[in-house]
Every structure is written in structure tokens, then in C-alpha cells.
Amino acid sequence: MLTDALIHLARDMAGRLGVLSLLALSGLAAPAAHASVGLAQIDAPGLDGPVTLYYPTLADPERVTRGPFQLQLAPRAEPQRGNGRLVVISHGSGGGPWVHADLATELVRRGYVVALPLHRGDSHADPTRPGPDSWAQRPAEVSRTIDAVAADSRFAPLLVLDRVGMYGQSAGGHTALSLAGGRWSRAGFRRHCEANLVEDFPACAGLMLRLTGGWADGLKQWATRTVIGLVFRSDEPQAHEDPRIAAVVAGNPYAADFDMASLAQPRVPLGLVTTRHDAWLKPAFHGDRVLAACRPRCEHVADLPTAGHGALLSPLPPGLDGLIGDLLNDPPGFDRAATVPDTERRIADFMDRHLAPAPARAPMAPLARAMP
């Protein structure tokens, strides 16, 4: 009897090991840890800016200087297959690929390849057309970023692009909401700013003007209201759908110009990250309105009670002063070291839940063998 039981147990264990082996071979098991994070840049089609890629690699990292940032990466290293999934990150106004390096690193450690487009007219390299003009073109830039990765001979074989994740912060959060099925209009932006100009002034005027409580505030409000009223007249709904996008997280999104009914039932799983001390995009006008519209069909991934707008930039650009410093620097009492890594893990967890690891592509048979 004991012998029969041992034989049965051995067969059962062998069967389980066989299943686990098949899962590992198919890419359905959890990806193995990777030595470091690779860094590469690929061209995007047309007039789009370059796409920066963070990805799993076995190469040793080195110190890389990009602008004011010192990062530990492996430039131009050979990519290694991770979990077979891609996540696209859309930066905020005036941003770029380096202020989301920490989130990208967390995602790469989970096995993802991470792609960051440089949005035309609304980046650190070209800040000439922020706001609704940029918002209208950004979702298509995300789609073309996926196309560019799919066309790259180094990365395309490592990925299955039927389920792509997307994260965006601030203006990138606006992009994220668009890709989750949201519809907005330029006239929606105008109506919000006409009704809430003083209370949400930085969201309407950007970095051009600030209210100081002085005698000139009235003139600033008049000038801002006049320009917005003249330029942003169109009620034409703006929307963009990409069936490859399968999970979206919006961090501190600009959202006041959206038709909230369009976000009541998001097209894909949607997560929100909000910060209570956001002086640029106050949650009451933006993230909280989205949550009120989409719950329970969306998820509040993180709500940071002591954080400002810049908490989701990691690393945060050093030495910010003036208006942009007031809007982005961490408020007193905010513990960045304890809070930001946890938030990035929560975002990565959301992607893990909604983007199952992709099965490895089977090698194609030689053409001669396939022919009769």
C-alpha cells in the first residue's frame, strides 16, 4: 500500500512539474528576474519624435547622464525576452523620457518593455504647442509608437502586441483617458475655464501667468479668458481607439474637458492615481470627477494625501524654481522615498493583473518545409 501511494505521489508530482514546464516554455509563468534595465532609442514614423525604450537585459548597468539625471542603465544592450508585453508611457507637458525612469525600471523588473514617445510640440525639446492642440494628436502618437516597436527587428520578436498597457501623467493622463474611451472637446476646455478660471487657474493658463493676489490679477484673468474664448470654440468630439491597448492608468490627469458620460464605462480596465496637494490639476476638477463617473468600473490605484503634482515624476527634476517649482516640487511633509516606490509598484501590479504574460512565439518553419 505504501509503495502504491509513493508511486501515485511521484506520478502526480511529475505531472505537476510537466505542467509548470509547459507554462514556463509558453511564457505564461512569472518572468525571471533580469540583471538590469536596457536603454535604446528608435525612430518613429513621419514627424514624430524618437521613442525611448527601457527593456530587460542581462548586460551590466552603467551610470548614464541624461540632462540633469544620473541613471543606472545599460545603453544599447542586447534585449532579453521578459513577459512579452509592452507598456507605453505618455509624459506630461514639457516632459520627456527621463522623468518616468523609475516607473519604467519597476515595469522592466516585472518583464515589460516600456516605450516613451517624445510628444511633438509638448516636450522638453519642443514646448511650442501644449494644451488642446497637443492633446488632439497624442493618442495617435501612442499608436504610432506601438507601430514603431512592432517594426523594430530587435524588439518585435520579443513581444506580442495584442494586449498593450498604457500609463500617462498630467497631459499624458489626458492621453490615457482618451485611449480608455474618453471623448473631449476644445469647447469643453473653454467651458471649464470660463466657469472655474480662478479656482483652476494653472490648469487653464499653464505656465504663462500666475495669480498673486495683486492688482494685475484681474487683467490676467481677462486676458486668459479672452484668448481661450477666441481659440477654443469647436464642440467636435475628440476620440481615438486602438484595439491593442488593453489596460490604462491615468496619473493626475487633465480631465475637466471630457464628457464624463464617455468614461462611465471605460473601454478597457482603467486605473487612476491622484495626489491631494496637486496645485496644477486640482483633483476636484480632474481626477475625482473621473472617479465619480467611472466607479465601480474603474480602480483608484493610489491616492496620495500629502503629495503634489510632481510626485508622479520620478526622478523629479532638480532645481525647479518660480511657478513651475511651486507646481511640481514636493510639498512640506511629503515622504518621497517611502511613497513613490509604493505607488510605482501599485501601477505595475495593475498592469500585471490586466496584461497576462504573452505566450512565446513559436519559431516559423522554413518556407521549403512548409510547401508541399
What does this 3D model show about the protein?
This protein is α/β, with parallel strands linked by helices. The chain has 2 domains: 276 residues, Alpha/Beta hydrolase fold, catalytic domain (Rossmann fold, 3-Layer(aba) Sandwich); 51 residues, no CATH class. Helix content is 35%, strand content 18%. The strands form 2 sheets. The protein has a 10-stranded mixed sheet, with helices on both faces. Strands 8-10 form a two-stranded antiparallel sheet. α2 packs across α10. It is globular.
Question: Short description, anyone?
Answer:
This protein has 372 residues and is of the alpha/beta class.
Percentage beta strand: 15-25%
Name of the CATH superfamily of the largest domain: Alpha/Beta hydrolase fold, catalytic domain
As a percent range, the share of helical residues equals: 25-40%
Task: Please state the CA-atom Rg, rounded to the nearest Å.
Answer: 23 Å
Number of E strands: 12
Mean pLDDT: 86
Helix-and-strand structural type: alpha/beta
Output the CATH class name of the largest domain.
Alpha Beta
Net shape:
globular
Main beta sheet: 10 strands, mixed
Please report the number of helical segments: 11
Order of helices and strands: HEEEEEHEHEHEHHHEEEHEHHH
Query: Please, how many domains?
Result: 2
Outline the low-pLDDT stretches: 1-32, 362-372
Distance between the termini: 55 Å
Might you state the CATH topology name of the largest domain? Rossmann fold
* CATH architectural designation of the largest domain: 3-Layer(aba) Sandwich
Order of the strands making up the biggest sheet: 3-4-1-2-6-5-7-9-11-12
